[in-house]
Amino acid sequence: MDPRTLTKINDYCWEIPQTGDMNVPGRIFASEKLIVEMDEKVREQVKNVACLPGIQTASMAMPDAHWGYGFPIGGVAAFDPDEGGIISMGGVGFDISCGVRTMKTGLMKEEVLPRLERLVDQFYNRVPAGVGSEGLIKLGAAQIDEMLLGGAEWAVKKGYGVKEDLEYIEEHGRVDGADPSQVSETAKKRQYREMGTLGSGNHYLEVQFVDEIYDEQAGQAMGLRKGSVVVSVHCGSRGLGHQIGTDYLRSLANAAQRFKLPIKDRELASAPITSPEGRSYYGAMSAGINCALANRQIITHLVREIFIGVFPEGRVTMLYDISHNTCKVETHAVRGKKKRLFVHRKGATRAFGPGQVDLPPEYRHIGQPVLIGGTMGTSSYILAGTEQGMEVAFGSACHGAGRAMSRTQAKKQWHGRDVVRQLEGQGILLRGHSYSGIAEEAPGSYKDVADVVDAAHFAGLARKVARVRPLACVKG
Amino acid sequence: MRILRSEDRWSVGIRPDAETRGQGDKGLTVQYETFEHQADIGIRGFGTTVDEAFANAAAALYSVMVDITRVEQKEFRGVNVTADDKEQLLVEWLNALLAVSDIERMVFSKFEVRIEENRLAGTAWGEHLDRGKHRANVEVKGATYHMLGVRQENGRYVAQCVVDV
Lengths: 476, 165
Known about the structure:
- The structure holds two protein chains of two kinds.
- By secondary structure, chain A is α+β, with helices and mostly antiparallel strands.
- Chain A has helices at 32-37, 40-50, 109-112, 116-126, 141-157, 163-166, 185-191, 216-221, 238-258, 276-310, 387-393, 407-413, 416-425, 435-440, 449-458; strands at residues 7-10, 13-16, 26-28, 59-66, 73-79, 86-88, 99-108, 204-213, 228-235, 270-272, 317-323, 326-334, 337-346, 348-350, 369-372, 380-385, 396-398, 429-432, 462-475.
- In chain A, helix 9 (238-258) runs antiparallel to helix 10 (276-310).
- The longest helix of chain A is centred in the middle third of the chain and has 35 residues, at 276-310.
- Chain A is globular.
- In chain B, 55% of the residues are buried.
- In chain B, helix 1 (50-65) runs parallel beside helix 2.
- In chain B, strands 1, 2, 6, 7 and 8 form a five-stranded antiparallel β-sheet that branches. A three-stranded antiparallel β-sheet of chain B has the order 3-5-4.
- Helix content of chain B is 21%, strand content 35%.
- Chain B has one domain: Archease domain (Archease, Possible Chaperone, Chain: A, domain 1), CATH 3.55.10.
- Classes of the chains: A alpha+beta, B alpha+beta.
- The interface between A and B is large, with 46 and 41 residues.
């Protein structure tokens, strides 16, 4: 994208002026360098979203924005139901509530290294991952509905994890508004055997250590110091979420036509929030969020069991759990007035600033932890939400690095085995369920996450707290 | 969605032992292919008829997930879908197959499609997933409307879309 075609608000905020059918301007939070690298299609998609009814303030793109389906990946938009606002499947995506959860281990890098290989082999063997993997628990029709209503809270009641875990999950591990009756039988059946599975593609389970602290006070509140070992998991709502996406892509695409919504792209599949179709999607999508939260909770239980088996001296506690692909009802100020809005974050995370009641007491003064995943060879970052982010971006930040090259190109460029050897040379143990999958996820096929994180920091969306580097990674 | 199984063979509407279409050598050099997309991957099927292009698009879909040359045609499943137009029908067909694969832990390598107006009856032959044997690669979350198209090009039909992985 040519920065000269945008209105520069400041070094890290660029505006697409409101023209034509746009109800609000577009706003991209990125450095000039990231703007130059950004796909021209992002502009088109940001503008398309700006045309949707009831949109508030601006159609936004986070620093890692790239060409998505309907919304750009890294797209954020909030809609007011009282102003004809819509809810869009294209603003959430197929992997509902795909997210990152980071757990602390109570141990330092030097303590973990001697038994790291044993740990990662057990993670690889015992945490179900990869194409067609099955979870350790099987659910029937009645239990699926309980799970969809209860989320991580349901999982804890079933014995997966402890009650304290729930405090460190957005909305305490369970979103209100889930309506299992709006989830198709096909979607439920797809989940019978998939609880507690990681999935494939860019999903992972990683052992990491803190190698840099940028904000001592926030680091301390999160219980992090240089050398601390953490375990992070990236996964989503599995087959159930994918099927909800599939079902509602069609029904909302048709609803958009019926309501004669000014839709520029079929993938923006939308319906008015207050319409039966809109309410139905909100109920199903919220159930999908609970499914993802329950899924990550079961994996947490497995991680804890395995970790303590290898390191009885350790203690696995939650740092935080964030979700990427969601639409949530939140209260935000628009032109000084508090409004109840439906905030879509597609490939973007919630990043609440200090003072929000949803945060656990020890984070309330520093802001919500924002976990940004890097690639398996580089680093990931932990940030904290800011007041400025609440004001300019409905409390949202970026979610990851974004791909720099296609999967096909990556496979041509690297062999999975070479990637494993190369990372081993850097002291990173890698276990994968598919060599070609590893090649597709080679570190070089992603953009530099550091640029994206710096842009989020300087744009004021979230501030840098710590950088973590991988010690071992299991790919789905 | 009702999945038709091997034992329901006559209710599928297509005789499973009928001449295979879409996989046989009809002088076409390429029956299906994948194409590049920044974050995900595109799939494309070719055919002398729309039916054949849809069948080959399904082969392209499964080629993203596994090595389909290693998938034996031991069992079949049938799906029926409807849609408002041909493009949506392609997405519905592919997504119906993905649901069957997930629910039954199956992968497929041979497909047959019959389209009448905006109704599609399809059959897929394959077997239960064996990750080692089939060289499983990556799951597909869904077929999307992205770069979706069903069109005639140089005398043959092309059916394509981007799939979310």
